[in-house]
Amino acid sequence: MRSVRGVAMQRVAVVLFNLGGPDAPESVRPFLENLFTDPAILRVPGFVRPWLGRFIARRRTRAATENYAILGGRSPLLELTEAQASALEAQLNTGGGAEYRCFVAMRYWHPMSDAVARAVRDWAPDRVLLLPLYPQYSTTTTGSSVAAWEEAAARAGLSVPTTTLCCYHSDPAFAAATAATVRAAYDGARADLPPEVPLRILFSAHGLPETIVKRGDPYQWQVEQTVASVVEALGIEGLDHSICYQSRVTPQKWIGPSTEAELERAAHDKVAVLVCPIAFVSEHSETLVELDVEYREEAERLGVPGYVRVPAQNSDPGFIGALHDLVRRTEAAGRPLCSYAGGRQCPKPFGDCPHARATARIREVA
Ligand SMILES: C=CC1=C(C)c2cc3[nH]c(cc4nc(cc5[nH]c(cc1n2)c(C)c5CCC(=O)O)C(CCC(=O)O)=C4C)c(C)c3C=C
Ligand SMILES: [Fe+2]
Ligand SMILES: [Fe+2]
Question: At which positions is Fe(2+) bound (predicted)?
């Protein structure tokens, strides 16, 4: 605790989680190895995982390197996340009451949890708030990051009270900020299209293997809640919209419909599409390459009469404002805010909530 003009100021470390991405072409393979050897991603017995994970990573390296080459050989995710962290930190520190510092911890590429936990320990906060940049909880994203953080914090000897904000899929401020960016893109697309061409919004979320959802992962349900909240905030009468899932990376059955299938349906129905990434809050390869290059080309090939993409939130002031409110409300409540159980708050402390239990199951198979 610090004293400012004789007033005690608590120090709060806010740790923003994201997935991370390679910072150079030679980082692509080790980044993919980190990803595919994570027990939250590759759910096979521990003794085969290192071998199988490295095998899958090796097979994917070429295609992923080609994608990152389009972005200059690296992912922009770290810079964009650091910009989000700076904007949030500035806003949190205008409110008084406590001194906030935002840290960024990536799951599969640097800066990773061990280094960040040591930096947080050295700053000597009174408490820590874990803030995933995943609005919807999945065992593969938030669950995996929280598990990695807890282990890293223990190794770093960081033992201060820690609160985890497990999800904010239908938080009203988050939905309103998302709806505002969708509305601007929708109005722009509508103005550019001939009036007789209908427009459909495709809310495109990252996919998941179906088995993960069947084992209790709340992600798909939470994606549906986000879309319902955003559509309500948009308030466009008779809005044509659907949910679809992109970025399938393994041969298993993934949840659907796929974004490709929805493009085929749009071509068949002769409607233009406004594609809105709904589970990513930053631009990265899956928006800038998959949505902007691959699916756009596919839409043209199929004869979809128009293709426009809604930008990801990045440091949009409405989005940063929503994160700021979430942090402040979580601090005031002293427990995680989440609407997993249909309410506005997690019914139980994080250690007991359904998300934490799902995370514990990942550890069982690790
Ligand atoms: C089984 C594999 C994967 C699952 C499950 C998965 C879930 C998942 N991922 C995100 C968000 C991101 N994924 C990113 C990259 C990425 N993801 C996978 C695999 C799975 N993701 C791979 C192999 C990669 C690397 C890129 C590639 O090879 O295509 C990224 C960052 C990419 C960047 O450019 O920095 C994000 C962000 C979510 C939200 C999610 C499930 C809910
Ligand atoms: Fe992914
Ligand atoms: Fe929860």
Answer: 206, 286
